[in-house]
Amino acid sequence: MSEIKERYISANQAHLFASFEDLTDGERKRLLSQLEQIPDPSKYLQEVQEAIRYSTSVSKSRRFSPLPAQACASTLDTSSETLKEWNDVGMDLIAKGKVGVILMAGGQGSRLGSAAPKGCYNVGLPSQKSLFQLQAERLKKLQQLANTQRVIPLYIMTSKPTRTATENFFTKNNYFGLESSQVIFFDQGTLPAVSLDGTKLLLESKSSLIESPDGNGGLYKAIYDNGLLQDFAKRGIEHIHMYCVDNVLVKVGDPIFIGYASTNKYHIATKVVRKRTADESVGLIVMDEETRHPAVIEYSEVSQELREKRDPQGLLFFRAANIVNHYYNVAFLQEMIPKWISDRRFLPYHVARKKIAYLDVGSGKIVEPREPNGIKLEQFIFDVFSSVEMHKFGCLEVDRAEEFSPLKNAPGSANDGPETCKANLLSRSARWLTKAGAILLGSEIEVSPLTSYSGEGLEKYLGSRIGSPAVV
What are this entry's molecular-function GO terms (predicted)? Predict the structure, then answer.
């Protein structure tokens, strides 16, 4: 205790111990446990202040260009022969037990009016299946298509608020047909909130700091802290597919993507979709012209002129929209994760200025500010792209209508809400069945993930008249 206390007092954080003598043993243990998570508070606060300076500097004037052609491919114009080759390679790796899947599922459904984890949400499909169930069943179907007795490990990253509810949801539903041993839960970390100038840690109570999830970039530290690198090695996993829970159309463990990335021996690869319009507010996968490395930039970092610029084919010059859907070579992760989490150049802190209720140690009361008074920090998963040589980075463009429909907004929203997710999944189902020769008698017809992974195996519906609503 004295060692921890001394470190924090040396870092000018004596206010954290103002009520320490009044705390119970349990409360003291809780506070010390939180403080112990930051071995060097002086260094942490220094890094926070650097992040504050960076966020207000001219650093955003960096120059970017689209990724070089050799780093890119598109399922929209790749030959069917090449797509089959990639798929066969991916399926072979899956059959040999060399593929694992990481599901990012730390978020709650608060924007959707739900206190449950977002993966528990039901967008209103005829089957009434949750996002978790749809994705687990796609994984089960993929195992069947790979014709293997091996299971694909599913690593689910939760957060402190969602961990128990997520585990209970899977247990209650018998893991949606997966084996319990193939589903591994682990928590992302948290970062303490600080004052606006980055000099003081904020207290939630006399015995606890204010903390918030460390962002999707916290994945790498969570992999390290939870021993996943060792688990990958133990299970013989060499390739990882990572995606976010909110994408209702995601191809979990996509063998085409795995085959594309592994064939090209990429360290990291990413999926993108084409921007809908020049002004769609999405992050973009680009090349940093100074470093010649891949990067992700915000919509606001591109001038209006460049947003509207077209290439000779009439497509947007900057069009590779980031959907946070990545491939990782495990050997590369084994080498780089320790470096990424120890070097702030690769995983910097990003600041979000917020109104944060906090404990005033002088009065002992909770202060509810009217203006932003503090900073919550997060890390971005794509910041590590800067450590990848361009020839080891791949970008695969996929069809948005087939693979990307995120659940981000409340019911009734124009885009990316439950209604659009439902409509997009049913539209995909209709395309698959119509292509197979089925006659659809309505729009509420859903293809179950257990029936088809990506449109295959529907020949039996040739000439069938399918009423609505229905799940086939």
Answer: UDP-N-acetylglucosamine diphosphorylase activity
